[in-house]
Design a protein that fits this description.
It is an enzyme of class 6 (ligase). This is tRNA(Ile)-lysidine synthase. The chain is about 50% helix and about 15% strand. The protein is built from twelve helices and eleven strands. Strand 2, helix 3 and strand 3 (about 85-90) form a beta-alpha-beta unit. The termini are far apart.
């Protein structure tokens, strides 16, 4: 008797899931929206996790931002229960601070982390795809926010002390839709994903297709590779910063100081990263490119300039050191 072969899209999703699960044990939480990406991810988990002795719990976060959201969330949970996956719906309030997308994301991750802690889970998995990564890189490039944002999303990171995994970052969105179709799953299409008021939607529906048309196929993959390379560079810089800071940073009264000569002796890329690192770790603030360069000039182009007011702190040169103190 001939058995139909496994659909290539399903095989690709399952392989990505299997590789990600090597790092976890016990219970894992999967964020489920009901869309194709998270639905394909959950189906892949339903197949792969039991073979590794893992327990899956799908969490549908209802943001309450659309009419009928409660019914949509309940339907998504019911869909994966039919796959044998335990599922629950968590309803959250979105305060709108930082914009609706950012606020919803913050509420969603908070709910996922809370559920993971309650369940004693070792990891949280989300369904971000290669297309999401490409969009993130393009948005970061457009905003001029530097190499950190161009790194995109990491395959593995930390969420409130819990391992956050994104197994599908190498998988195209078209593949997750094909996987759902092959497995008889009906994804929900969020109307917000068609709303051109959101910058990410404009990138998805207009910018990336134009780039593909004008430059040829493979733009999304190239952007994802760029993000990966920049993360590698960032990891190397982080090690260099850790080694350098021990020698050039000292605690000062009400703040911290850095040797001006040592800063000036370092390459600009490392010098600027040290400045941003010091301000972020000591005062919890982020510096713009312009602010960072102005602080660096206290070391490289010293001409007696006065203190520089920065977010959360002030920088000045004193006795051969750049001194950072909390804002008055």
């Amino acid at each position: 008797m001939h058995r139909p072969g496994l659909d290539p899209s399903v095989a690709e999703v399952r392989l990505a899931v299997r590789r990600a699960l090597q790092a976890v044990e016990g219970t894992v939480i999967v964020g489920l929206s009901g869309g194709a990406d998270s639905l394909a991810l959950t189906a892949g988990l339903a197949f792969e996790a039991p073979k590794l002795g893992l327990t899956i719990h799908a969490v549908v976060v209802d943001h309450g931002l659309q009419d009928g959201s409660a019914g949509i969330a309940d339907a998504a949970a019911a869909a994966v229960r039919r796959l044998g996956v335990e599922a629950s719906v968590v309803r959250v309030e979105v305060d709108g601070e930082g914009g609706p997308e950012a606020a919803a994301r913050e509420a969603r991750y908070r709910a996922l982390a809370g559920t993971a802690r309650d369940a004693g889970a070792s990891a949280i998995l989300t369904g971000h795809t290669l297309d999401d990564q490409a969009e993130t890189v393009l948005l970061g490039l457009a905003r001029g926010s530097g190499a950190t944002s161009l790194q995109g999303m990491a395959p593995a990171s930390d969420l409130d002390g819990i391992l956050l995994l994104r197994p599908l970052l190498g998988v195209r969105r078209a593949t997750t839709r094909a996987a759902c179709a092959a497995e008889g799953l009906e994804p929900w299409d969020d109307p917000h994903n068609e709303d051109a008021r959101f910058a990410r939607v404009r990138v998805r529906r207009t910018v990336l297709p134009v780039l593909e048309e004008e430059l040829g196929p493979g733009v999304a993959e190239a952007l994802a590779r760029t993000a990966e390379q920049l993360r590698e560079d960032a990891e190397a810089f982080a090690e260099m910063i850790d080694e350098t800071i021990e020698d050039i940073v000292e605690h000062a009264e009400a703040g911290i100081s850095v040797s001006a000569a040592a800063l000036a002796a370092n390459p600009a890329a490392l010098r600027n990263r040290i400045i941003r690192y010091v301000v972020a770790s000591e005062f919890g603030a982020s510096l713009t490119r312009v602010q960072t360069v102005e602080v660096a000039r206290l070391a490289t182009d010293w001409a007696g300039q006065g203190p520089i007011d920065l977010p959360g702190c002030r920088a000045r040169r004193e006795a051969g050191r750049i001194v950072f103190t909390a804002s008055p």
